[in-house]
Amino acid sequence: MLRIEVSGDFVKESVPTRMTSSKKGDNGTVLVVGGNKIYHGAPILASLSALRSGTDLVYTAVPRTNIVSVRSHSPNIIALPLSTDELTTRSAKWLLSNLPKKPDAAAIGMGMTIANSAALATLIVGLQSIGTKLLLDASALVPETLKEISGTNAVITPHPGEYRRIFEQDVGSNQNEQISNICKLSEEYGITIVLKGFTNFISSFFDNDVRIALVSRTTPAMTVGGCGDVLSGLISGFLTKLSPFEASVLGIYFNGLAASKVYDQVGLHMMATDLLEKLPDVMKAFDKIKE
After folding, report:
1. pLDDT digits (tens, 9 = 90+) for 184-216
2. Which residues sit opposite 210 in a β-bridge?
3. How far apart are the first and last CA of the chain?
4. Is the pLDDT of residue 180 over 90?
5. Alpha helix positions (H), the chain
6. Are the beta carbons of 197 and 159 closer than 8 angstroms?
7. How far apart are alpha carbons 36 and 113 in whole angstroms?
8. Where in the chain are the domains?
9. Whole-angstrom Cα distance, residue 17 to residue 36?
10. Labelling 63: which of 7, 37, 162, 199 has CA 20 to 30 A away?
């Protein structure tokens, strides 16, 4: 096990360089799939944060009942209407056949209702077959998905309750036990685990070794709903250009920095949308451009 210390230098080195000659699409394309009758905001937050990460294009697939609210919220979102209010095998197949462009990465599950595990498997397998890197969150974190993502280094972003649901076991009662369990499972399934909480754990199986990083939450204001959706968007945006481990560390790091900036202004009265406004302020110092 290799423990990585997350510092400003590590982040600066990991941030991808943008070529001055790059054109639209060169800096990543993301697909976000989420939303239901209640949680229309989750895919919006994830989509806008993916754009804030520096991604060129984001396609947002939501139930048809959400399409107006998503499109009216921001002209930056390219919204794709699913035919049903929940993810079904039919709607998954339709989405795979109607993607305007192959996404480099996809974030799946935020605020989403899934009809059955077969529907989710159809979407996961279909995206994997075209080389799309995957991040699974929220509703997509069920035990049945493990067999589809094993050995692919897909990213999963559970909080402790979702961790318990997908792995059918608790994470542990102390930090040493938690590190041991998370590293063991990331190696066993060949995936990257981002466990969210007071301490964020990022574990990834890479080059026959497990890497682990711990990043403390910057403020308890981050318990507000939607911060996890912003994180999923950030990680998926970075995932278009970086390894799952680096993308996850950068997502956690910048989400925390933005929250700290928001806290300085509004204290414990933060909303997740505030993070979207502060992300450029904390990220621009790390920007790299090459001729």
Report:
1. 999 999 999 999 999 999 999 977 889 999 999
2. 205
3. 38
4. yes
5. 8-14, 41-52, 67-73, 89-97, 117-129, 146-149, 160-167, 175-189, 227-239, 244-266, 272-283
6. yes
7. 6
8. 2-14+28-283
9. 36
10. 162
